[in-house]
Amino acid sequence: MSVMKDFDVKEYLQNGKEIYSQRENIEKLADKLSKNEYQNIVMIGIGGTWMEWYPVAEYLRHLSDFPVYLENAGELLVKKDLNYLTNKSLVLTSSDSGDTKEIVAAVKYCNQKGIEVYGFTKNPESALGKLLKESINGSLAECENAYLMYFMLTLRIYQNWGYYKDYGRWADQMKQLYPNLLRFREEFEPRAQSIARKYYNSPLTMIVGSGMLWGETCMFSMCILEEMQWVRTRPVTSADFFHGPLELVDDTLPVYLIKGEDEYRALDERVERFLPKHTNSFEVFDTKDFVFEGIDDDFRQICSPMIITSLLTDRLASWYQQYTGHDLNFRRYYRQFDY
Fold it and tell me: At what angle do helices 300-308 and 48-63 cross, to 10 degrees?
């Protein structure tokens, strides 16, 4: 296995154990919430948090016809048609820092309407932590942490409501998640270096994805390459690729295709058939290439965003930083002043 640049293996595995140890707290909260007679679930995020909630909402909609809404916190504050947001809504949100302005404002808005909000933040004493009815407190810095905790809460609730029968087996097997994701990182490391070296200085990069991985597609595009590397990108769904964006394809434009394992895979494969006929500048990231040990195949859809975040938002991002010379933590605008 490759030695990974700027990566502390012991710290990562310890972090995974700490996140998994939240299972008891999460299940207690889920069991409590399950007893309430909700009419819908409303998830609130913005930027990266919206993108992390995206596959959760997508998966829950596959399990039942119980209404699930995913709201952008900034848009929620100005939106007119919110009749479905009531005190019969199970409202969930998250912010690692606990001070994301739009999230805090959205929770205040809900509280003013008599709507309780539950969520995740590493700091219970933060502005968000104090506004939440109850919170689960753990680091969301690694995207897989967020995915694991969000799915634990919602799938436990769905088990209690009779919509999902495999929660116990899934949750037990998630003990193996972090060692697997570590191995995937190690397997991908040489390729991450090669891709970053080849494309870091491209004037524009197109990133294509769909379904359960659309949130991660946007995450790598907007939150990593644009925000953290100042690299210009164009995220596009696999379905929409053939309605405009394909005309940009030539050898000067790197195209990154993120292939998932849900029903939208057929759309990803259509893009994959097109690309080698018209450009040499493309990369395909297929979650099927990474095989779990100790985790059953019927959980691969749930885990697919966790695979991609390990490969792209972690390892590929780290190598982009190496070649651009731009620190991933440096911002010129974001959180630097009021706007």
Answer: 170
